[in-house]
């Protein structure tokens, strides 16, 4: 069986995976459509294996990093799902109160990639909280396929309330300075945009390839940094109207499009990951938070 690398994969395969990962086609249809590209020693099984997340080998931060205080906590989300489990992380060396960041997962619960991202942000000098919106259903189940199915059964506005409650939890935390931002990916990008609309005292928001709000843009107070993948036609289609609304309402924002990368380019665990674009987007994100939250 041929060993695959990213250059072997046609863009249409990544587009198929995007449709599958966002519940627009079922697994059976996904595999059937993949068979068209199973040629030249490439099998459907090898394509599936290549596209699926690999968490074990892609962590950027050791979960037992001695410089971190990282642990799971529970907080209450009275308007959302009730008791929510979350990963709370901060640098052990902190001598002062820290700015906070809510880290919002994709459409499959708090998987290892998002945990890793939350720890990574904490090492930059923040207290971070990464909630699991699947908590009312038992939590992230250990695989993304099942996680997507579970998350699709929850009302997204209730999940939005879970992340707003995480903001309130951080705001009241004795180790937080009260200035709090949000960063989110995919579904989490939509949550980040919506928190900017719904939370008047949010200090900054960085949505990665997230769906855009279509109303109440006037309510946004937080400065925005919007990160988009150049090949992500589905999400990018909503940007022109959102930009017009931001301009009309004189909102502070900056936007970056990363050419020739796919939706999910920041996610280290799949072949959609683009190291150069991901590192640039992340450095911009951290610099933005250091400017707006400190």
What is the fourth-level CATH superfamily of the largest domain? Alpha/Beta hydrolase fold, catalytic domain
> Percent of residues in helical segments?
25-40%
Q: What's the helix count?
A: 10
Helix/strand order = HHHEEEHEHHEHEEHHEH
Principal-axes geometry comes out as: globular
Secondary structure category: alpha/beta
Task: Give the total of beta strands.
Answer: 8
What can be said about the biggest beta sheet? 8 strands, mixed
Task: State the CATH architecture of the largest domain.
Answer: 3-Layer(aba) Sandwich
**Mean pLDDT, nearest integer?**
96
Q: Radius of gyration from the CA trace?
A: 19 Å
Biggest sheet, spatial arrangement of strands: 1-2-4-3-5-6-7-8
Estimate nothing, just give the exact number of structural domains. 2
DSSP strand content: 15-25%
Low-confidence parts, pLDDT < 50 over ≥5 residues? none
Distance between the termini: 52 Å
């Amino acid at each position: 069986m041929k060993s695959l690398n990213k250059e072997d994969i046609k863009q249409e395969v990544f587009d198929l995976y995007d449709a599958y990962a966002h519940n627009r086609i079922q697994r059976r249809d996904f595999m059937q459509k993949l068979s068209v590209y199973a040629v030249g020693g490439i099998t459907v099984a090898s394509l599936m294996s290549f596209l699926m997340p690999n968490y074990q080998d892609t962590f950027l931060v050791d979960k037992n990093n001695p410089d971190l205080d990282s642990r799971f906590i529970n907080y209450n989300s009275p308007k959302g799902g009730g008791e929510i489990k979350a990963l709370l992380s901060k640098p052990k060396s902190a001598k002062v109160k820290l700015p906070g960041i809510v880290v919002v997962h994709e459409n499959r619960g708090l998987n290892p990639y998002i945990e890793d991202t939350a720890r990574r942000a904490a090492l930059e000098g923040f207290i971070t909280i990464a909630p699991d919106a699947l908590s009312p259903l038992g939590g992230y189940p250990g695989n993304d396929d099942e996680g997507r199915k579970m998350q699709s059964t929850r009302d997204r506005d209730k999940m939005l309330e879970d992340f707003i409650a995480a903001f309130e939890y951080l705001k009241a935390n004795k180790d937080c300075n009260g200035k709090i931002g949000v960063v989110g990916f995919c579904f989490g990008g939509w949550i980040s945009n919506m928190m900017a609309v719904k939370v008047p005292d949010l200090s900054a928001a960085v949505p990665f390839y997230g769906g855009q709000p279509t109303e109440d843009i006037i309510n946004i107070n937080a400065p925005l940094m919007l990160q988009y993948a150049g090949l992500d036609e589905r999400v990018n289609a909503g940007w022109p109207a959102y930009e017009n609304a931001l301009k009309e309402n004189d909102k502070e924002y900056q936007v970056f499009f990363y050419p020739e990368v796919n939706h999910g380019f920041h996610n280290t665990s799949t072949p959609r990951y683009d190291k150069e674009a991901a590192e640039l987007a992340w450095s911009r994100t951290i610099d933005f938070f250091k400017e707006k939250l400190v």
